[in-house]
Amino acid sequence: MTAREIRGSGMNGTRPAKPGIFLLSLAVGAMLVQQGLSYLSTLVFPVAMPALSEALGIGTAYAGLYTGLCFCVSSLGQLGCGGLIVRMGALRVSQVSLLLLGTGLFLAASGEIWLFVLSALILGAGNSVSTPASSHLLARYSPPKYAPLIFSIKQTGVPVGAVAAGAVVPLLVVTYGWQSAFLTFGCVCWVFALAIQPLRGEFDSDRQPRHQLSFAAIGATIRTVWGDAGLRGYAYAMFCFVGLQAIFGSFFVSYLSDGLGYTLTGAGSVFALAQAIAIGARIGWGWIGSRWIDPQRVLGGLGFAMALASLGVAAIGLGMPHWAILTVAVCYSATAVGWHGLLLAEVARRAPPGRIGAITGGVVACGGAGMMTYPLLHAGLLQITGAYGWGFAIGAFPAALVGLRLVRGTR
User: Which distant-in-sequence residues (6+ apart) come within 8 Å of 406 by Cβ?
Assistant: First the structure.
């Protein structure tokens, strides 16, 4: 049986019920916004970093430390969230995630350095469950043939969140002060958590309130991911690809503002435009993976493409004109920020029955490790060399190697 035939037999080898386009649309819409707010919340600090640096006297390299700490917690939480999703339901877990994200943003608005640390920890906890919960929910309602496309549409929440961060955060900072960005989006997270409550009766109908939570489940998740060659390959990809996404979100605005003399709003506009392109790219890659080319092969090709784009971003500091900087940023965003739906749909397909949330969490935890590692390494290189390009240049090579592995794995 071919990979495409397996996909056609349904998620995890069983054909799901056909819920109709209305419920599917509600599920995709709710999880798209949830995913967007989750990613946006982690970007408020690094996008506002130039203003924070001026107001509080902290170096821009601290954006990497903040992001790294946030995703250290996120990675740990993703390993153990599967049982929580089964017990509470994917929608309830999403609500808890949004409340934590809002709380983390409110704490950062205080301006106290020690509360920035607590803010990063709480944001990491909130971010950790957003993707596993949304995958668990969508796997119930997605027609198997179109799962890569549907998961890709849901994952456009990430570039949508990034567009909002790039466009709105600088505007709020310049107009009302840096604290307004944290307070505004903290309120948005809390309001949306309450707004989706009426959907819980349907979307959490599969919850198992008596499901036992245990640390042994974490070990079982790790063994399952590491013991399956396909899942292990996707875990490698998640680490490298998310790492490139992380340094783009954490440092690109500061790269243009601090390194090349752009205004904060000008740098934010370039970032937002590049992320807007990624919205269409995600849907396009999902359509291609659903209709024409094996998703794993598409992911492999994206690995090569994002490696080239990362080298292009590294070269920005050599004196590129504005149009070239914008082109490189768009290419980077379309590839390094455009692959998630394909990979998550493949993980959901390979996960054992009833464990989509847990296995997605195990694979996404590797992405959390990448989100932690890459910004910290980039921050270290920036501190040592004073140049933003080195982190992007070095990060290109693991992505290319993973791309080669994925392409070879489809043969």
Answer: 233, 237, 296, 297, 299, 300, 303
